[in-house]
Design a protein that fits this description.
alpha/beta; seven-stranded mixed beta sheet; six-stranded antiparallel beta barrel
């Protein structure tokens, strides 16, 4: 079967440029289960791996029995090996079936889709805040920005993290001494990270991840804080807290929205969200006009 059957050209509305969504038949290289109904899947998808940017997602057909695809954020890419990594949670029929797929199976997949995070200003310090299945885009951002810009990643989960963890050697201002754990792979690459959970996980901040980020940000000097920008993905209550954090501290925020999608490529308009641009109310499609929006564009988060 050919790797790619067709490409769909569409306007990248926020960037005013042309982008491509590929349909690839992605081979499953691994599909590993973790605690809390979480899975990490590695797929052979060379065109998506080569062109994806942090904040974009793929739209996967999980089985022949379910014609509607499922949107899943990209966690990592390896353009040289032509692979992408996805983290998903088995919370519905589609993702449960995805969890049953085996190594060697092939899944029809559209990607990469959507407006990514704006990482163009490398003079900024990027504060990455991810919760649950909103952590993967933050990992992708961190992997992209390492050695290019300052960054700190804060990740929250109410179940065990599906990564190898270790105590961090990086000292972060405002962070309590008992909040020690980090993701081992990030630490190895020199990326500062701390974890939050309400599940009583040892070495994690006990509470919500935006509050952990607030402790760090309020401990910075005014000059340091002025350099910061917030990037976040996660459930809506968490995004509300991140937007408030940005307003309270005068820090701009980019939010990646999680919405149910049908077509995933802008045709059905089933994932619209209200925005304000130049004082005018507009409705945008989360799939192709997002999923990343400036918080100030979104009246829901004002």
């Amino acid at each position: 079967m050919d790797e790619s059957v067709f490409t769909i050209q569409y306007s990248h509305l926020m960037k005013n440029q042309r982008n491509t969504i590929f349909e690839e038949y992605a081979e499953i290289l691994a599909n590993v289960s973790h605690e809390g109904e979480q899975c990490i899947m590695r797929l052979k998808a060379p065109k998506t791996a080569k062109t994806a940017n942090p904040g974009q997602f793929v739209h996967i057909r999980v089985s022949d029995a379910l014609p509607l695809r499922r949107p899943i954020s990209i966690m990592l890419t390896n353009p040289e090996q032509g692979t992408i990594d996805l983290l998903y949670k088995k919370i519905g029929e589609g993702t449960v079936q995805l969890g049953q797929r085996k190594k060697g199976e092939v899944l029809p997949m559209l990607g990469p889709i959507g407006v990514p995070f704006d990482l163009s200003d490398t003079s900024k310090r990027y504060i990455l805040i991810g919760g649950g299945v909103g952590v993967p885009p933050m990992v992708f951002v961190a992997d992209t920005l390492v050695q290019k810009a300052d960054l700190v990643l804060f990740a929250g989960s109410e179940v065990a993290f599906p990564f190898a963890l270790k105590p961090s050697a990086f000292m972060l201002p405002g962070i309590a001494g008992n909040t020690t754990l980090t993701i081992s792979s990030l630490e190895a690459r020199g990326i500062a990270c701390r974890l939050a959970s309400n599940a009583g996980l040892y070495g994690c901040y006990e509470g919500h991840v935006p509050d952990l980020a607030r402790d760090y940000l309020t401990a910075l000097s005014d000059e340091e804080r002025a350099r910061c920008v917030l990037l976040s993905c996660g459930p809506h209550p968490m995004l509300h807290a991140v937007a408030k954090l940005g307003r309270d501290l005068g820090i701009s925020a980019q939010l990646s929205l999680e919405e149910y999608m049908a077509c995933g490529i802008g045709g059905c308009a089933g994932c619209v969200v209200k925005t304000i641009e130049d004082g005018q109310e507009k409705y945008k499609r989360v799939c192709v006009d997002g999923p990343v929006f400036d918080a100030e564009q979104l009246p829901e988060f004002a």
